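The instructor's notes for this session suggest beginning with a concrete chain rather than abstract definitions. Hand out the sequence below and ask the class to guess, before any prediction is shown, which regions might be ordered.
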Amino acid sequence: MRKFLVFDIGGTLIKYGVISENTRFFEKGEIPTEAHLGGKEVIKRVIKICEEYIKSNDIKGICISTAGQVDSQKGEIIYASSLIPEYTGMPIKQILEDYFNIPVEVENDVNCAGLAESWVGKGKNARSMFCLTIGTGIGGSYIIDNKLHTGYSFSGGEIGYIPIEGSQFQELASTRTLVRRVSELKGIPEDEMNGKKIFHLAKQGDEICIQEIKRLVYYLSKGIATITYMMNPEMIVIGGGITNQKEYLYPLIMEELKKDIIPSILAKTKIEIAGKLNDAGMIGALRHFLLQEALQPFNRIITMIESNKHKLTKGENVIAQYITFNLNEVPNYTISEMAQKIGVSESMITRFCKKLNIESYSKFRMMAKEAIVSTHIHDKTNSNSYESVKEGYVNIFNKIHVLNHPKILSSLVEKLIHSDRIFLYGTGEISNILHQIKFKLMKLGIPVDTFTTPYQMQMSTNLLQSNSFVIGISLSGYNSDVLHMLKQAKQKQAVTIGITSQRDSPISNESDLSILIPMENYVQHVKSSISEISTLYLFDILFKEIQDVIIKK
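After discussion, reveal the predicted structure:
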């Protein structure tokens, strides 16, 4: 059984412990943070505790939950309030890894609380959960399929800053605001009042406390409604010190939510008060460490590809795109099989590996296998999840056959086979797909060119002729560059095909023949690239038809 050192660094206390992978604590303790001494002193205290426990335990990793906004990839504090001076910019992960030479992972304390709730708390059976933490301020964390979603710049879930009625959510519905307002109305110092006293007085009939709690609930409901409408989670868990008042608060919250959330949505959203999950910060820090550990090999491969993209040729970029989306296939194919599948040469795959500083494709296959195996470790999602996602994809692929009559696809195949030259137009994410389609058409002996930037498209106008065959792909149906080229092709009396998800869109209306694909970016609530995959699936159907026609001839 592996052991880990866990920390929960707050403005008042540093909690710590030695814990197993199944959340069993062997030892626990806490010391004052003495935050006023600054970030460097806080880390010195953490190092001192680590030294003590690493001597007597076989520690496999250090897991840290901390106040402040955290870049969880670097393990660095992006921003910390004045509560802990000189904490902003603190590279905690680097400092501790350099000092102890063991793995370290760092995450924000509110995110850790959410991870703990989704792992072993109220949200353990929820597919999507938003954890709302109410205390001195208000924070939040969003968990989908047991994975934390922190957004592009690690600020996802910062619900406390949402503007409500000319102020911020946390300035209206936090415990700090409740204490301040009650103190002012009663004319007593804030340090003589706290949340526990306010609820005690309210239960005894104190009108000021009763009304101020109602005011807090009024604004709390507004924030919860915002979360519900924007994110539509299966469950919202309300945590923080306020959870000790569940019996008093919960009925008030639910009554207010009936005014702010339409019944059909409220009925499908579970609103829960967090249980008294002791040491949620430390347990969440462990969960974060285990998830990061499990993803490490996969992250390493993706990072290698991304950091070397500037070195790759167009063909090698096609390989990179395919592998990024289909890494699980790599261990199953030899280099010749993979080359045939992607539509490139074996030597190009070898060069691609070399540019990633991987000595051979065989070595790359081993790395991919390690990555695939590791991503399943510590993932509690059961096999039913895989089946439901699989079913979602199959249903969407079936839609392609429903949306397009077989005669339309047969007509497209005939035009492809007899065309003198094909022009493929598309931008953005579709551009990489176009290159794969191009190589497959060339393999079938069909002349084809792809144009993916406005400049390339404009220059291609000089090549358009009446015997040209033009295919424009725009998932939205409104891409102005693609639409312009379809119009140019029509002026040259070329045959035009539009591939889109919108039947009555400009792309569809401007084309001689319109092919429809589903544009659904979520499969069973999981973010996907189904539109791009559907495009490839459509062309694979066409390629098979073309091969059959060629064989018959």
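Then share the key points. Confidence is low (pLDDT under 50) at residues 521-528. The radius of gyration is 29 Å.
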